[in-house]
Amino acid sequence: MDKLDAMQVFVRLIEKGSFSAVAKERGVGQPAISKQISALEDELGTELIHRTSRSIVLTEAGHDFYESASRILDDFESATSRIGRGQTAPKGLIRVTVAPTFARLHMVSKLSAFFAAYPDIAIEMAASESPTTIIEDGFDLAIHSGDLPDSSLVGRRFAQTMIILVATPQYLSRYGAPGSPDELSRFRSVVFMERGAVQPWKFGSGKDVKRVIPTGVFRTSDIEQMRMGVLEHLGIAQAPAWLFAAELREGTVLRLMRPFERMVPILAVRPASRRMSTKVRVFIEHLEKTFALCSQFNPRTG
User: Fold this and answer.
1) Scanning 27, 41, 243, 270, which has the fewest C-beta atoms within 10 Å of its C-beta?
2) 177 with 166: CB under 8 angstroms?
């Protein structure tokens, strides 16, 4: 048995999520892939996956082997690239979790240039608002705004954004504008929910942070619905500036209480236990270069 090839098949199986997809990619029949995985399990003396009619679930041993095999294959790819003096271009699939609205507004448009430079790399984007499941779900990267929620993750900043208060001119002409956090209780808000709880608005940082619980007639756990609620004049919202970039340029929404805005990083997050592969490194570098050209992701404070 070619152990390196078996590892490649196993890693691709977890990335693709089905035997048929890997078989199609390799130009062989599905039974050949299933036989190779079974031979690998026999070689290791343990079951790596639970097979069901609809999904493939990693066992505990499978999780461990997937992490180890991914590192070995990444090291092999890096070594061949170095020894080949850069003649071996990075290739393979990069699986990324990202908030769907951020991906739609700001990431998909930057992929064309990346694929032109690295035609052998494929990107799979999955909708997610949190990076915490990146390891168990087998993703390479998560795009996340703000501080890291988990010590098992490491992040590399490729952009930053301001957290701002916004409302439409129509709303402000009817209700007026707040001047400080203490006045917000008198104004109707578009309320963002997470896991059934109202998310407080934060002003300042560290020990000086002030939290305000927004109130309003429209609550949602979907950031796109929150955006539309503001555009329909339902209230004030606190949001990352990128969410309203086009509307801010056009003047269809206005920023409020600018002295109370704060900046947060936008991070490319990956598992701390996993060596960064060449394909992931060049993708992060691409994000750094392309987002650096966008003034909205490099705001000036003060």
Assistant:
1) 27
2) no
Burial 60-76 (b: 16+ CB within 10 A, else e): eebeebbbebbebbbee
Q: What is the CATH number of domain 1-87?
A: 1.10.10.10
**Selection from 114, 88, 156, 145 nearest residue 286 by Cα:** 114
pLDDT recorded at residue 246: 93
* Cα 181 from Cα 262, distance rounded (Å): 13
The reported pLDDT for the residue numbered 150 is 67
Taking alpha carbons only, the member of 290, 281, 295 closest to residue 82 is: 281
Is pTM beyond 0.85 here?
A: no
The amino acid occupying position 193 is M
117 burial via Cβ count (<10 Å: 0-12, 13-18, 19+): exposed
Report the CATH number of the 160-262 domain.
3.40.190.290
3-class secondary structure, 17:
coil
Radius of gyration, CA atoms only, the chain: 23
Per-domain residue ranges of the chain:
1-87, 160-262
Q: Are 72 and 7 in contact (CB under 8 A)?
A: yes
Query: 200 by DSSP, 3-state: which?
Result: coil
**Across the 302 residues of the chain, what is the mean pLDDT of every consecutive 10-residue run?**
89 84 87 93 92 81 88 77 62 90 94 94 85 70 83 88 97 96 96 94 85 95 96 97 94 96 92 79 95 83 54
